[in-house]
Amino acid sequence: MSLPAIALPGQLLGASSTYDPGPGTHLHASNIYASLPGRPTASTSSHNPSSKSSKPPPKQTLTITRLPSTSATADFGPVSERISNTNALPRVGDVVLGRVTRCMTRQVNIGILIVMGAGGKQEEGMVCANEIQGVVRREDVRATEKEKVVTGEGFRVGDLVRAVVISLGDQSNYYLTTAKNELGVIMAKSEYGNTMYPVSWKEFKDPVTGETETRKVAKPL
Q: What is the pTM (predicted TM-score) of this model?
């Protein structure tokens, strides 16, 4: 598979049989995924083995390079050079990317940063000139065992979330859902400030400390 021009956190980049993981990526289940948004590149070691060597050529190393921060997504890096900056208004069915701004017992407040459209395609995305307020209610966090959901275990302030608009809501908030496998937290930082990577549907891992934290993890695309 060819590398995308711009990668989003959690996006599949290639198999570990083809590439080695480098800075900005992580290895999970024999595949390499983006850990942060930016431009993916594949590079080969500068060491040139002897032409007589029978060893197979070394695998290329995948690296994610952050783009210059110019938008409201500066903490996690901009998502795409092709995403337009506009006063986009979400519609029902649109995929959105946003940042958790507040966690309460019955809901999670999301500042919507990017409207990806109904298909969730990166090239169709629009950066919001100003954050648009959205809410994920406890019953909309996941599809099963809704009564057992603890919002503080699925989200933390600062998490980057992929969600879908299910209602225009009230005058101040759009209603969002993360009740699908591909929806939820796509990027999170640990309590120590390190960017984590997903290890299961409900956990992220800090690559520095090795500690895990619970989240409602979005399945990598």
A: 0.68
The predicted pLDDT at position 122 comes to: 55
When pLDDT is cut at 50, 70 and 90, the band that residue 221 belongs to is: low
Pull the structure tokens for residue 181. Answer: 């496998």
DSSP, residue by residue, the chain: -PPPSSB-TT-EEEETTTEEE-TTEEEETTEEEESSSBEEEEE--S----TT--SPPPPEEEEEEPPPP-STTTTT--S-TTSEEE-----TT-EEEEEEEEE-SSEEEEEEEEEEETTT-GGG-EEEEEEEEEEEEGGGS-SS-GGG--HHHH--TT-EEEEEEEE--SSS-EEEE--STT-EEEE-B-TTSPBPEEEETTEEE-TTT--EEE--BPPP-
